[in-house]
Structures are given as structure tokens and as C-alpha cells.
Specification:
340 residues; mainly alpha; 75% helix; 0% strand
Amino acid sequence: MLHRFSKFLVACTVLLILAGSLVTSHDAGLSVPDWPTSYGWNMFTFPPSMWVANIFYEHGHRLIASTVGLLTIILAAWLWLADSRRWLRWFGVAALGAVIAQGLLGGLTVLFFLPAAVSTAHAGLAEIFFCMTVAIALFTSPGWSDGYAAADPRVRPVDDGTLRRLATTTTILIYTQILIGATMRHTGAGLAIPDFPWMFGHIVPDHWSGRIAIHFAHRVGALVVTLGVIAASAYVWSRHRDRPELTRPATLLLALVATQVTLGALTVLTARDVWINSVHVVCGAIVLTTSLVLTLRSWRARFAYQMQEPQSALRTQREENTLVSAISASSAVKRGGDRA
């Protein structure tokens, strides 16, 4: 049940990211100019009759964010009460801290009139929180608990250092690309280069500005991420094709990246169509978390080893203490018998 609830939170977070991207795509960030109130009303009593034009997107975003915050409180408490893994309980608390910080950043973007730095940080933290919810859903899954060996207990988690490096690097590259994309959105550089696949009719822009440089970096980043995803997926299929817990996310990652590149091209060609632009943001977040799932599963064996080492040492210490106690008791009984 805990695993299902964590997956529900993941789905709600996807909806929240879509709502946030629609706010930016509609330039609706200041359509409700006060925070935490909405035109002086309590957020939750703001009358629906006033949810008009861009107010609908901004106020809806706030309500969905509040719902996700409430669900995160429930998840953190549930983990603390129901899960025996101390590290996971604290990870749930960290996720709660992240969503609180995210809400505060969202408020600051309004109070300070959408400064690019704060808005970009808001977008970056949203991705981190989404990753945390996906990680919790993964950590509470039956597959993670049994090491993906339910069908055959003799099967052990994959322990492949090269795969760990490839997957981890790919995830970092994707997150970096998302930050560049967020910077591009919040500095108005989305159409700084208005054509695709060329750039002002050339392979490389023939003139430069700050916005053109940001847009160019995002396109280069897309190429680097695509190559990283291809390398990681190809390695999985060449070395671990019999491990569905790795091949499934690797295959999905390839499909998502192809979709994401297409959406990015269409965003330029349609002059930032609102829905294409927004779905592009959501797809990027799903690309990141899919890569994260592959990365965490590649670390499953090492993670289990690190967690088991302290437990093994503790069991050994307890066994030694029990043995010493037994020997001491036996010696005491023997001395008592000798005196008798």
C-alpha cells in the first residue's frame, strides 16, 4: 500500500510539473500578483468565478502544489511509521523539506516579480523533488526489496562498475541539460535561434548574444544527452539483455529522448506553441527520472552491500558477546561445582 501511495504521489508531481510549465508558457506567473494569498483571498477560498484567463493557470498551479505538499507530509509520516529502514525514513523527511523549499521559492518568484535566477532555481528544485518521489517509489517496490530476484533467488543484483558510471553520468548530463533549458525559458531565449535544424541558416550561429549563447548551449546539450543515452542503453543491451529491470528503463529512455528531441524541434518550428512547449518540459522530467531509475538499479548491488556491512558487523559483535557470556556463565557454574 505504501508503494502504491508513493506512485500516486509521483503521478501528482507529473501533473504539478505540467501545471507549472503551462504557467510559464502562458506567461501567467504574475497573473495572481500576491502570495500566499490570491487577490487578498485565502488560497483555498478564492472563488472559482474569478479563475479566468491566466489566473486559472497560476491559481491552479498553487492548488496542485498544495495538494502535492499535503501528500508528501502523509508519505513522510507513513514512511516513518511503517518502514524499518532508517535511511529511507530520513529520505522521506528530506523530500518533505524539498517540497516546502519549493513552495517558498514559488512564492519568491511572485514577490520579486519573476527574477530569472529564482525562477530557474524553482524549476531545478522541482526536478530534484520529482526525482526524490520516484526514488521513494522505487525503494518501496517489491523488486527493490528482493533484489529483482523474485523468480529465482539465486539471481543476484547486477554489480557492474561500467554501467554505474555510464548511467550516473547520463543522469547528471540530463539534469544539467534541464537546468540550461530552464535558464533558456526564464530568460526569454526560447526563440533566440528561430530556425531548426539550422541556426540562422548555418550549422553554428553567425552572430552572438547572451540569449543566443544560452539557446545554442541547450541544443549542444541535447546532442550530448542523446549520445549519453545511446551509450548507456547500448551497454545495457549488450551486457545485460537478460535483466529486464535494466533493459526496460534503457529502452524507454531511448524512446523518450527521441520524443523529447522532436518536441524541442517543434517548439521552435511552431514559435513556442503553448502545449508543445509544456509537454516538452514534462517529457524532459520523465527522461530524467527514467535515467535515475536505471542509475539506482545499477547501484542496487553496491547499495545492498553498504547497508549489509554494518548489520553484519553488528550481528558478529552480538554473537561474540553472547559467546563470551556463555563461557563466563559456564566457568562460574564449574567453579561453583568445584567448591561444592
